[in-house]
Amino acid sequence: MRRMLSGVALLAVLASAACGDSGDSAPAAGPSGSAAGGELIVMAAASLTESFDKIKTDFEEQNPGLEVTISYGGSSGLAQQITSGAPADVFAAASPATMKTVVDAGDAQGDPVVFVKNQLVIATAKGNPEGVRTLADLKNPELKVALCAEQVPCGSAAQKAIEAAGVDVEPVTLEQDVKAALSKVKLGEVDAALVYRTDAKAASADVDGVEFPESAGAINDYPIVALKNAPNPSAAASFVAFVRSEPALKILTDAGFQQP
Questions:
Q1: Which helix (H) or strand (E) holds 205?
Q2: Is the Cα torsion angle 68, 71, 77, 83 positive or negative in sign?
Q3: I want to staple 174 with a disulfide (CB 3.0 to 4.6 A). Which of 18, 128, 149, 151 is the partner?
Q4: CATH number of 38-117+221-255
Q5: Under CATH, which architecture does the 120-217 domain have?
Q6: CA distance 75 to 232
Q7: From the annotation, which residues make up the binding site?
Q8: Is the pTM of this model over 0.70?
């Protein structure tokens, strides 16, 4: 028996799976994304939220009878849930390192494929009242800065960029995913945060995104894979293929992701 699972997010996934009895799933027709049925459970990096919500809608429209449930969160936490036996069909991570956790545990069906890339910006309050222009500005002790924790992809990328800039940034908080770091800026609890360009763009009504050159050396690859013990394996394969299709890539690039 696999290890017991924990965490609110995981409980939500388990409850969703119980309601959607995957044993009744109809087989999918294939990578075209047509004729899939039943329930599909996707675990995806928090930074994919806005894009995957749109992709889910389009995929469900092409597959009447299929219900897609997406659990968003920090990639490392999601990977831990999967390796602990969470009943998921697809995993989309914000870094190869977190995906490797799932692959090394033997939980991937085939090789993961990188479908997009993402780059960091400095998120500030709308209008950039503190005048943040460079990464070096964040070493100002009068600025409150939020970073992602280093064990999650946005934190690892932030640390890489900070080291490349040769600056010493002392964050007032370390968050478990990029949405939490961005929320600190939106709520006015910090003056700046390192977040993905896509997250700053999605929240452009509330924040400004300040580009900085060192982020070019800290771009994260986003891999996706169907899971070995997927309750709905045919729909999982179809969803992975759909995410890599031109319509889905347009959604992703419109959101600010870069093509691999």
A1: none
A2: negative
A3: 149
A4: 3.40.190.10
A5: 3-Layer(aba) Sandwich (3.40)
A6: 22
A7: 47, 75, 178, 196
A8: yes
